[in-house]
Specification:
104 residues; alpha+beta; Ubiquitin-like (UB roll); 5-stranded mixed β-sheet; 3 helices; 5 strands; elongated; RnfH_sf; RnfH; UPF0125 protein IMW75_18270; Mopterin_synth/thiamin_S_b
Length: 104
Amino acid sequence: MVEVMIDVEVMYAAVDRQLLLAVSVPPGLTVREVVRRSGVGEAFPELNLDECPLGIFGKVVADPQSRLAQAGDRIEIYRPLLADPKEVRRLRAAKAAEARARNQ
């Protein structure tokens, strides 16, 4: 008997390289389980696949341990932010205001 499989992609982009894996998995697996089975952990051993944030097509999955993967999903593994975007914008605005004040 032939087991039905679904096709999904698993994507990870490190600072220096990226990897897009096409994988076939049995239906009923969670997003987290698909990532574990994909082989991305062998390519990037520094990843903690049990805790890293995951998303599908650019949208964060709130609970990847319970969200089931669907055929055609592109599961993305997200890296932690190096800097808070709000803080970076605030500092940039303060620096621009300081520069304007000096030029007046």
